Structure formats: structure tokens, C-alpha cells
């Protein structure tokens, strides 16, 4: 890049997280402050991630944004909140000392941002969490900002604050009106529980009937169960879940994870008019997991569902091979040439006839589109390789062939 055209470009990746103690409902819509604390597991970026490139240049005439290859309006209020806050922190950091290495980064310069997910955006996986975490982390690297950025990520999407860390993460709801104490904290690193595996059953990649934001607003207004849950149930469950994770007690962790998922969907049903995120296949998966656990005589597999029909199943590595075979027989893959099992490799297992006859009922061919196996993973990362940039030297979207 010629000296008279200074431009800096940074590319980072960020992970998806899956809540095991659910966040549903805000006490402040503007600041995105939750009505209760929550806890999640960060999924490994080898399987699921958002990649974001941010560039800054004196040649750019306006801020621009590309999502998954398509230019989008950068004027979205939440996006603007994150941009404003990052620029404010950058101004604060500069103070009076503008060092030579940051001199080209005039805060009046515009930024171009490109972001892409390697998973379906509307599939029920929290794409906004990975997306906003990645945006905030990338912009922070671009502007040279350090420190805890979970508060900034929260301004984009509540669950994004949890994607700022790897492993097991709690989002402390906080009490302050300005939200300064509503931040994410790591409970345990991704290496803490090496045997833990997460199997995602992708049922539907279609857009959900009611988005999370609208769903939460309706629930907060109309569900008495949600209010009771936030005040009387979640505080104790947070303490229990942290203890189960620290002790690597899978049975207790799994049982509480399922109860949490069930109660979250009960609050959706208690909302008026009711909200249904689970479909018939989701319910079949729930029944299958309970039959499997009953046959084993203890909790070997645990389900959780966010605001969508896809099942996220937790299990230890020793259970994966056998359970995948059970899933394949319960939801036989349609032979369309696509790969049914993606992600981490699975050791072949032969389930007993006794297990199959006890657990597999009325197979539903093609009901599950594919399985994705992953494990807990690290938080956002800076990509050193310039080949990873989604923007070209001109600050415009690179073509996928380049």
C-alpha cells in the first residue's frame, strides 16, 4: 500500500456459544441488559465460526458492511452502538499521545467491514452472538483497544458477550442502570473438560417464525412464569451449573441442562400468544434422548434447544459413536450425496440389538439434515495470514475465487 494511501486491515474469527442456563428477556432494550444471568459453552471454531475483516482508510467515503457476500445497511442501531462505543474507546485511549504506529488511523476515517459465517445464519445457532463478538474484537484490534470488551459486544447482541471468551462462560446480569457490571466472565477454560462433546442435529435451516428479539419482548410483557424463573429459579441454577462444570459431573450437568431447556420453552408456551420454537422432530429428539438415558440407567446424553428447532446434544466422548448410530437409525439420512456427519471424526461403534430395540422407534427418514460434532473451544482470535482477509487491497469485498 503506497504511503499516500494509508490503510490498515485486520481479520479475526469468533465462536458460537450455546447457553445451558438460558437468557430470555431484557430489563433494558437499549443497553441489552438481561432479566437474569446465563451460562454457556463456547463451541470450537474448527467447526463453527464467524470471520470478520475490518479496514480503515482515508480513501473510504462512508462506513460499509458486507455480510456473507452481500452488502448490508450499516445503519442498524445495534451495529451503530458497537461502532460508536469502539470509536469512543479509541479516542479515550489516544488521549494526548498519538504514537507513530497509530498515526494513520485517524478517527475521522471510515471503516469497511466484511463478515461471513461458516454455518447457516437462520438455523437456530446464535449467529448474532458470533457475529457481534467478531465485529467488536476485530474493530478493537484495528483501533488498538485492549481490555474486557464483553460490555461492548453485549450492545450488539446479548449472547455475543459470552462469545468473547472460550470454554465455559457466565454472563453476569449486573445491577447498575448503565450496564457497566453486566459483563461476561470465564468460568472454566476450554481445556477444563477435554472429554465433553457437542453434537448438533440440524433439523431446519429455515428462518424461524418469530425472531428472538420480538419473542423476548412478548415474553417479558406476558409471561408470569418467565418473571418467576428469573427471580426464583435462575440464581440457584447458575450456582449449581458452575459447580457441575467445575466438578466435571456430567450426570448433574446434563440433567440440569435439559431442565433449563424445558423451562425456557415452557416460558415460550406461557407467553401470550404462545411461541413455538420446537417442531415435531425436536420433540422426537427429546424422546429419543430420554429413552437412551433410561436404557443406560443414567444421563449419558443431554439436549438443549435455543429459539429454534435444532437440537444441541452434550455427551462424553465415550458415548458419541454409539449415540450417532442410534440417531442414524432413528433419522435415516436421505441419500443425496451430502455428508451426514460433519465436524470431528467419530469412532465407529456397533450398538447392541437390545439398545436399538429399546431406543429406536418409528424412524423418520430425512428429518435430520446433518449432524455436526464439535467440542468446547477458545474465544476470538486474530488471523495473522493476509490470505484470510475478506476485503481486497482496495477495501472492497474480495470475490470468492480470489
Written overview of the protein:
With 402 residues, this protein is of the alpha+beta class. Helix content is 34%, strand content 21%. The protein contains 9 helices and 17 strands. It has helices at 77-94, 127-143, 150-156, 212-222, 224-246, 250-270, 280-296, 317-330, 353-359; strands at residues 7-15, 17-21, 26-28, 33-34, 38-42, 49-57, 64-67, 70-72, 110-117, 168-171, 184-188, 196-202, 301-304, 311-316, 341-343, 370-374, 381-382. Strands 8-7-9-6-1-17 form a 6-stranded mixed sheet. Helix 9 (353-359) links the parallel strand 15 (341-343) and strand 16 (370-374). Helix 2 packs across helix 3 (150-156). The chain is globular and about 70 Å long. It starts with 6 loop residues before the first strand and ends in a 20-residue tail after the last strand.
| Helical fraction | 25-40%
Q: Unreliable runs, pLDDT <50, ≥5 residues? A: 1-5, 98-104
- End-to-end Cα distance: 18 Å
Output the structural class. alpha+beta
> Could you tell me the number of beta strands?
17
Backbone CA Rg: 22 Å
Percentage of β-strand residues: 15-25%
Order of strands across the main sheet: 8-7-9-6-1-17
Succession of helices and strands: EEEEEEEEHEHHEEEHHHHEEHEHEE
Quote the average pLDDT.
Answer: 92
Largest sheet report: 6 strands, mixed
**What is the count of DSSP helices, taking H or I runs of 4+ residues?**
9
Shape: globular
Amino acid at each position: 500500500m503506497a504511503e499516500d494511501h494509508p490503510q490498515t486491515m485486520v481479520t479475526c474469527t469468533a465462536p458460537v456459544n450455546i447457553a445451558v442456563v438460558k437468557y430470555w428477556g431484557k430489563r433494558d432494550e437499549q443497553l441489552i441488559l438481561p432479566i437474569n444471568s446465563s451460562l454457556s459453552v463456547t463451541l470450537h471454531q474448527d467447526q463453527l465460526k464467524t470471520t470478520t475483516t475490518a479496514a480503515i482508510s482515508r480513501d473510504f467515503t462512508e462506513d460499509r458492511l458486507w455480510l456473507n457476500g452481500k452488502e448490508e445497511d450499516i445503519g442498524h442501531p445495534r451495529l451503530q452502538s458497537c461502532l460508536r462505543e469502539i470509536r469512543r474507546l479509541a479516542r479515550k485511549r489516544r488521549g494526548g499521545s498519538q504514537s507513530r504506529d497509530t498515526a494513520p488511523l485517524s478517527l475521522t476515517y471510515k471503516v469497511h467491514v466484511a463478515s461471513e459465517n461458516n454455518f447457516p445464519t437462520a438455523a437456530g445457532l446464535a449467529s448474532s452472538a458470533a457475529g457481534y463478538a467478531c465485529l467488536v474484537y476485530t474493530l478493537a484490534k484495528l483501533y488498538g483497544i485492549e481490555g474486557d470488551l464483553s460490555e461492548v459486544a453485549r450492545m450488539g447482541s446479548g449472547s455475543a458477550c459470552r462469545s468473547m471468551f472460550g470454554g465455559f462462560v457466565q454472563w453476569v446480569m449486573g445491577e447498575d442502570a448503565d450496564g457497566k457490571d453486566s459483563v461476561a466472565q470465564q468460568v472454566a477454560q476450554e481445556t477444563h473438560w477435554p472429554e465433553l462433546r457437542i453434537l448438533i442435529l440440524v433439523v431446519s435451516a429455515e428462518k424461524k417464525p418469530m425472531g428472538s428479539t420480538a419473542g423476548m419482548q412478548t415474553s417479558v410483557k406476558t409471561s408470569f412464569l418467565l418473571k418467576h424463573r428469573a427471580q426464583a429459579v435462575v440464581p440457584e441454577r447458575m450456582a449449581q451449573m458452575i459447580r457441575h462444570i467445575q466438578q466435571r459431573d456430567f450426570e448433574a450437568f446434563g440433567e440440569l441442562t435439559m431442565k433449563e431447556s424445558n423451562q425456557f420453552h415452557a416460558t415460550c408456551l406461557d407467553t401470550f400468544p404462545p411461541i413455538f420454537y420446537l417442531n415435531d422432530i425436536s420433540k422426537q429428539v427429546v424422546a429419543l434422548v430420554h429413552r437412551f438415558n433410561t436404557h443406560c440407567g443414567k444421563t449419558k446424553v443431554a439436549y438443549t434447544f435455543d429459539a429454534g428447532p435444532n437440537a444441541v446434544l452434550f455427551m462424553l466422548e465415550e458415548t458419541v459413536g454409539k449415540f450417532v448410530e442410534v440417531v442414524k437409525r432413528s433419522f435415516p439420512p436421505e441419500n443425496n450425496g451430502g455428508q451426514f456427519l460433519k465436524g470431528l471424526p467419530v469412532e465407529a461403534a456397533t450398538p447392541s440389538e437390545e439398545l436399538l430395540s429399546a431406543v429406536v422407534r418409528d424412524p423418520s427418514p430425512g428429518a435430520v439434515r446433518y449432524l455436526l460434532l464439535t467440542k468446547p473451544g477458545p474465544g476470538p482470535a486474530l488471523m495473522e495470514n493476509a490470505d484470510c482477509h475478506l476485503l481486497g487491497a482496495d477495501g472492497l469485498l474480495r470475490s470468492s475465487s480470489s
